[in-house]
Specification:
- Helix content is 6%, strand content 47%.
- The chain is mainly beta.
- The protein has one domain.
- The strands form two sheets. The protein has a five-stranded antiparallel sheet, covered by helices on one side. A two-stranded antiparallel ribbon has the order 1-2.
- The chain is globular, with a radius of gyration of 16 Å.
- Bound molecules: zinc ion.
């Protein structure tokens, strides 16, 4: 059984959003991503469950988080692409180490791509 602090450690502190012509903006993932909720207090966010799965291309972690301000539940979905195996044909391929983070609602409906971590 994973405890809450361990779950919290699985969540990156920040995500990065690419802005057109203005570089990257850093945003905190310590916030509620549900509509009409402005909770940005980590004390009011309680991660309680993790799902993890992977295929040959990517590793996916879904952290379920309860917001104590709006009493909603949302999921931070962290997708890490696996490094492309070196092949002689495609040695120009850049290793991709960035992960992508999405917010999902309780029913796993995608609320949007948040950014990169
Ligand atoms: Zn909330």
């Amino acid at each position: 059984m994973t405890n809450k602090e361990e779950l919290r450690d699985e969540i990156p502190s920040y995500a990065f959003i690419a802005l057109a012509r203005r570089g990257m903006e850093k945003i905190s993932l310590d916030q509620c991503f549900l509509k009409n909720c402005d909770n940005e207090s980590p004390e009011l966010l309680e991660p309680f469950k993790k799902e993890e799965y992977e295929d040959d291309k990517k590793q996916t972690k879904e952290i379920h988080i309860k917001c104590k301000k709006c009493n909603g539940v949302f999921i931070l979905k962290l997708v890490t692409l696996k490094r492309v195996a070196k092949s002689t044909k495609e040695n120009s391929e850049e290793p991709l180490s960035m992960g992508m983070v999405y917010a999902l609602d309780e029913n796993k409906k995608n609320l949007g791509h948040i950014g990169y971590f």
